[in-house]
What we know:
Blueprint: H1 2-22, H2 26-54, H3 56-76, H4 80-108, H5 114-128, H6 131-143, H7 146-164
Helix pairs in contact: 1-4, 1-6, 1-7, 2-3, 2-4, 3-4, 3-7, 6-7
Amino acid sequence: MLYTDGLITLFSFGGIYATGTFDFNFNEIIIFGVVINITAALGAYVFGFLEDKIGIKKVIIISLTFLILLCLLILFVKSKVYFWIFGSALGLFIGSIQSSSRTALIGLSNSNNINSLFGVYATSGKITNFLGPFLVATFTSIFSSQKAGMATILIFLILGLLLFSKVKL
């Protein structure tokens, strides 16, 4: 739930951040969205094979770790070119984590509770999905900085990584 909230917030505010910090125009935002979707599909595909070799839990931990590192890099870059590179690379791990999280949920369930588990998964995200935008808006306002606001996404990703590392799969 936590790292999913971080991803939802990243999706919601990524374009705003690109526009406000790197002067992206409308066409660049659209192209960037397409590129991220392509890299996400590639990440889901490639990491799907990796799941079979090293396991779902390791793939999710690797993906979260790289998402955190790339988000940190994006917060420090000043170049639009580097933003494009690191932002596009985010897609690889976004696709991986979205795909692997659903596979992990199946691994955590048994045939008797799989439907209710997916229901809880979907509902939990709806209940807490206001937290990310609230923190982004609050930190952006307090510090008068989009970077400060976007840094709050790291809270969700890091807490999600810490909690997920304790899950037994």
